[in-house]
């Protein structure tokens, strides 16, 4: 089953269970995440190469229909420590692409939280920062190696 924010926005209990955030917290965080997501993709390709032409819209073959799904993806991973193989099944991609998207979405989320320290509660922000820092500073985690 492919996860989409659109399917969860009316189910706050499930959204909170999966992400650790209330609907209003998710929406507020998304406003800033969306800006970071759009800025990245207006300047770089998915692989991090400088964009030669300006991207005017989301490509039809894009994994995420919009940045809400990308934020949901990274928050599900950070909240529950979901194995990358399970994320691959839930979001309709293969494991190597999961690893690349996790790296990208975590960098964008980290940047957003550092620039806007009061987006969500300090406790939730601290927990997310600790998880991201642990995963990125710990080198490649076991899932990414396999």
Order of secondary-structure elements? HHHHHHHH
What's the number of extended β-strand segments?
A: 0
Number of contiguous helices: 8
Largest sheet: none
Rg is: 15 Å
Distance between the termini: 23 Å
Low-confidence runs (pLDDT<50, min 5 residues)?
A: 138-146
Whole-number mean pLDDT:
85
What gross morphology would you assign? globular
Relative helix content = 55-70%
Beta-strand residue fraction = under 5%
**Helices and strands: which structural class?**
mainly alpha
Offer a concise description of the structure.
The chain is an all-alpha fold.
Keywords:
mainly alpha, 146 residues
Report on the architecture of this protein.
The protein has 146 residues and is mainly α. The protein has helices spanning 5-8, 12-19, 23-43, 67-80, 84-91, 95-115, 122-137, 142-145. α5 (84-91) packs across α6. The longest helix is centred in the first third of the chain and has 21 residues, at 23-43. The model is unreliable at 138-146 (pLDDT under 50).
